[in-house]
Amino acid sequence: MDEKQQLITTGHYLMSNHLAWGTSGNISARVDENRMVITASGTFMEDLCMEDFVECRIDTGEKIGARKASKETPMHLGIYRERKDVNAILHSSPFYTTLFACSNEPILSELFIETMYYLENIAYVDYYHPGSQELADEVSEKAPEANIIMMRNHGVVVFDDSISEARMRLETLEMTCRMILKAKESGVQLRRIPEKTVQGFLEDSHYKPRKRLVGKTTN
């Protein structure tokens, strides 16, 4: 399945599972070392088709074709430039994740298997207008340190070496934010896994190879 078809399938999945809404997100995939495809401006995730993507050179940002690329293209380009291992980027504003992006509530990673792995590295950037070069610069600066970047009062961008893994990060994040909020509403005290056990899981459980980041030292 080529990159566009995978992104179409992913866009439909995000909409069907309340991980995106309306035109409030954009997704992209690396085609090769210096090319990416990204959703065009104003596209609805639910209605994506093969004509709804714009191809861009990663080094220069030059686009191919008449369609206007998503206004968040500079942010995607910055991540691909900083992270040669990244092949897929998903930006959206799921309800619970965005709620946390609009608050100071911490997102816990020491809760269960998937959070230990997929939420190990989360970075934050302050609010900048969507599509601005300031936002792209801030996200690009944080990209070597994390696989999830929470954008204050905006939403989130997740990235990984495949579209399926990026989607799993987004799903895990949204579920965890919902779990934390529901626990608070219900007066349930969440029990966190001890740090030593978390490190043991990440290094020795053979669940998945631990993601090594160039900008962050892991124990």
Automatic annotation (TrEMBL):
One of its GO terms (biological process) is pentose catabolic process. GO terms for cellular component: cytosol. One of its GO terms (molecular function) is aldehyde-lyase activity. It comes from Metabacillus sediminilitoris. Residues 5-181 form the Class II aldolase/adducin N-terminal domain. This is Class II aldolase/adducin family protein. Keywords: Lyase, Metal-binding. It comes from the Bacteria. InterPro entries: Aldolase_class_II_sugar_metab, Aldolase_II/adducin_N, Aldolase_II/adducin_N_sf.
